Amino acid sequence: MHTQRNYDLQRRGDPMGIALIWSLVVMLVRWMFSKRRGAISYDSSDQTALYIRMLGACVIFKQLFSRDVRVRSQVGFEPERRGSHPYLCVDFRTLHSRSENARPVPGRRVHRLFSFQRHLHSSRRLHSATTWPYNPLHILDEDYLGQAKCMLAKVGSWNFDIFLFDRLTNGNSLVTLTFHLLNQYGLIELFQLDMVKLRQFIVMVQEDYHSQNPYHNAVHAADVTQAMYCYLKEPKLAKSLTSCDILLGLLAAATHDLDHPGVNQPFLIKTNHYLAALYRNTSVLENHHWRSAVGLLRETGLFSHLPAEDGLNMERQLGSLILATDISRQNEYLSKFRRHLDQDDLCLGNASHRHFILQMALKCADICNPCRPWELSKQWSEKVTEEFFQQGNIEKRHKLEVSLLCDSQSNTVGDIQIGFMTYVVEPLFSEWARFSDTRLSQTMLGHLGLNKASWSGLRASGSLEEPEPEPDPDPPPPPAPGLAQEPQPQKIPPPEP
Ligand SMILES: [Zn+2]
Question: How many angstroms is it from 466 CA to the middle of ligand 1?
Answer without folding.
Answer: 26
